Prior knowledge:
Two copies of one chain form a homodimer.
Chain A: E1 4-11, H1 22-36, E2 44-48, H2 52-56, H3 61-68, E3 75-80, H4 85-99, E4 105-111, H5 119-123, H6 139-154, H7 158-172, H8 186-191, E5 194-196, E6 199-200, E7 210-218, E8 230-239, H9 254-267, E9 276-278, H10 284-293, H11 305-308, H12 324-328, H13 332-348, E10 361-368, E11 373-381
Parallel strand pairs in A: 2-3, 2-4, 9-10
Antiparallel strand pairs in A: 1-7, 1-8, 4-7, 5-6, 8-11, 10-11
Amino acid sequence: MREVAIVSAGMTRFGELWESSLRDLFVEAATEALENAKVDRIDSIYVGNMAAGQFVGQEHLGPLMADHLGMAGVAATRVECACASGGVALRSAFLEVASGASDLVLATGVEKMTDGADVTAVLATAADQETEAYHGITFPGLYAMIARAHMQAHGTTDEDLAWVAVKNHLHGAKNPKAQFRREVKLEEVMKSSMVSEPLRLLLCSPVSDGAAAVLLCPLDQAKKYTDRPVKIRGVGFATSSMALADRKDTAFLDSVALSAERAYKMAGIGPKDVQVAEVHDCFAIAEICCIEALGFVPRGEGRHAARTGLTGLGGKIPVNTSGGLKSKGHPVGATGIAQAIEIFEQLRGDAGERQVRGARIGLAQNMGGSGASSVVHVLERV
Amino acid sequence: MREVAIVSAGMTRFGELWESSLRDLFVEAATEALENAKVDRIDSIYVGNMAAGQFVGQEHLGPLMADHLGMAGVAATRVECACASGGVALRSAFLEVASGASDLVLATGVEKMTDGADVTAVLATAADQETEAYHGITFPGLYAMIARAHMQAHGTTDEDLAWVAVKNHLHGAKNPKAQFRREVKLEEVMKSSMVSEPLRLLLCSPVSDGAAAVLLCPLDQAKKYTDRPVKIRGVGFATSSMALADRKDTAFLDSVALSAERAYKMAGIGPKDVQVAEVHDCFAIAEICCIEALGFVPRGEGRHAARTGLTGLGGKIPVNTSGGLKSKGHPVGATGIAQAIEIFEQLRGDAGERQVRGARIGLAQNMGGSGASSVVHVLERV
C-alpha cells in the first residue's frame, strides 16, 4: 500500500444556509480544496452523503457533483453510512490512492437538511427500520437510552452531560465556521427544554447544512501541492449490531472501540499518543462514550473529562476543538470530513484561537446511527 | 496494485419477491457466495443500493447487512450510483483488495422495489432534480428522447428496438434466475402498450426485487477458494453531464465510451477481444447505444445487431446472455453485480443453456441515470 497524505481542505460554514442548495454547498467546499492545492484536474471524487434522496429528492450524487464542479467525466462515487458517511468517504478515497489506481482523489461530504423534510424521521432511517424506526423511536430516544444506561452503570449525572456542551460551545465560539459561535453556561444547558429525558436541547447537535472536502494524494507527491502535508497514518472502520437492543452493553460503543483498535494498530500507536481529537458528539452522552471507547479515559470515567478540563483546550487531550457536532453543527454527511479538516488544521498549526500547541498526531472519529458504524482516522504532521 | 480475482458468487432469483424483505434478499445472496467459497470470515463488505431510504425507509445498509449476515464488526460500506450502484460497489471492493488493505471482500448489490413506494418517482431522483425531475420527467421519458435522437441521427426504427427485447427474452428464457423466463415475439413487443413514445412496455425493464454478491480476493490467493477463479483484468468508471440536455450528442452515451476506454486500457485489450458481454439495457435503446459506445459495432450501427444475430447466442459478440435487465429483471442496486455474475459463470463454463463456448474474456457494463455514470469491468478466465 502506498502512503497517503491530505494536502488541502475546503469547507463551507455550517448552519441553516437557506441561500445555498445541496450542489452549491458541495461546489463551494470542493472548489476551495482544489484552489488551495492549485489543482484543476483530479482522478476521482467521493461524496459522503446520508440522505439527499429523502431530504431533497436527489440520489446519484457522484455524477451530479462532478458535473457541477466542472469535472464531468471523472470517477465519482457516493458513499452512505448514515452520520459516518463523510468518514467512510475519506476511507474510500484513502484506499483508492493507497491502491495506486489514482493519484489525486477528492474526499467530500455534504448534507442539505433544512429544505423542508421531516428531519427527525429521515434521520431515523439510519436506525433499524424493522425493530426500531417502525415502532416510532428516533435518535434522541436511542441516545437517551444510552445515557440512562451510562448513568446506571457509571453514575453519570445530568451535570456531567452538561459540561460536555459547555466545553464544546467554548471551543466552537472560537470557530468562524461554527453554526453556534457562542458560549453557553452550565445552568443554561441544564435548564434548556427537555427533548428526550435525560437529553435536553443543549445536549443535542443541531440540524445543519454544510459541505467539506479534502484532497488526497500519495505522500511522496504531497510536496507538489503543499509545504505542510498531513499523513493518514491509520484507518479503522468497524460495525456493530444495528439495533441498540442487540448490543451486549448499551453504555459501551463497541464499534468505536473496534474501529480505534484497527486504526491504532495500522498507525502503530496507542491512545496516549493522540494529542488532539475530534469525536462524534451528536449528543453529549456520545462524546462521553466515545472517549472511553477510544481509550482516552478508562471505561466509566468519561463523565469527568469535560468538567475537569482533561478534554478542553489546554487539557491533556483536547477533544472537539472545532466545537464538535454540538456547536459547529452536524450536516450529517459532511461531518466526518469536517472532523478530519479540524485535525488537518491543528496539525498544520492553522487552528488560530483553537490551536493545540505542538500537536503532531491527531485523531478523527465519526459514527453512524446509535453506533452501528464507526470510522477512525489517525493523522500525523510530516 | 495487487491483481484481484472473483472466486465465488451468490444471487437470488429476480422478480416480485413479496415474501422477502430487503435484508432477507441480501442475506440469501451473500450467504450463497460465502458458502460457495467455504468462507465464514471476511474483511469487508460493499453494498450497492440505490434508494432503500426512499423504497423501504432504510439507510445505513452497511452495518445492517453485516449484522444480519452474522458479521457485525466487519467494515461495511454502502455505495450509491443510481442503477450503477452494483457496478460501483464491485469497483470499490476491487480497490480495497488491490490496495492490500483487505484480502476477502464481498461486493454485493440489493434492491427491494415492490414494497409500495412510487417506483417511477423514486427512480427519477437519479435524474437532475433541479432541471429534470422537478419538471416532471421520469426515465421512460428521458430514454424516449435518447431513442428519438438515435432514430433521427441513424435511422433506427421501432422494429430495431423490438429485436433487442426479442433477443433478450430469448436469452432470459434460458435463465432460471430471470424474472420473465419466457420468449416474446416481435409483433408482441411492437403491439405492447405505449409507455413513452417510442418506448413500449416490452422495450422497458421491469420493477424487480433481488440481490447478488461476489467474493473477491487477491489473485494469488484465489486457488484457496475455487479451482476456477476469474480475474478482474480491467476496471473503468466515468461520469457525464447529469442532465440529458447538457450532452453534446443525445444519441451517444459518452460516459459508457469513456468508462470502456479506461477499462480496455487497464486490461490491455480492445473491444474485439471481448467474447461475451452484459450491458445496461434498462430500455432497448440503451443496449443499442451501449454496444456502440463500447466499440462492439461502429457508431450508428447498433440498431442492426440484435436483428442480424450479431449480439445473440451463437453470434460474434453475444450480449446480455442472462436476459439482460429486460428479461432477467432490474432490481437497480443489484444489477451491476448480477451482470458480473453472468460473465463470471460464462467464463467458468457454468452458464448452462446460455453458455458461450470457449469464452475467455468477458465484459460487464453498468450505467446510472440517463448515462450520467457508467462502470465497466473486464473479466478473464485464468
